[in-house]
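Chapter summary example.
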Amino acid sequence: MEKDTLYMHEVANGYRPDVERLIRYIPWLESKVGNNISDFYKGNGIGEHSIAFPVYDSTLMSLVQDARRTKLLDRNYAYVYSRNRIRTVEEEQRVIERATIQDMNTLKGILSKYILGGMTKGKIWSEGVSNGSILKVLLKMKEILEYWDKPMEARAEKMWFQV
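The structure predicted for these 163 residues follows.
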């Protein structure tokens, strides 16, 4: 039993730096749940001569870049969905709610769907923020790591996107 607890602490410590890097986006994500975070560029008569393209919130783009610099992304995230029989957002969020430290790879897979999937289909980023899945994954990871280790806090410095 003591070996299991020690192992869980080691696992928590392994994920800690990457999760700390991303939890600073939690206040921004909370403020954007249910909102649209992209718009289409409409300048200089682009509709007449070209195809409109999406413009994303700069904080979202910072989140994506920070997430890509962590070890929290799994290119095989599709297997997480098939293995756990996740087909809808509701099923996805139920899996997130029930996750424990043994399910960190599942949480990584869900986060990966939204971060890596958005690299090829940009609207996936907006969906992950709007439906709250990215937020719920980060909150759950934070909760799990705080349970097995010590409380986490976002960096003390004021972030440029906070008011």
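To summarize the output: The chain has nine helices and two strands.
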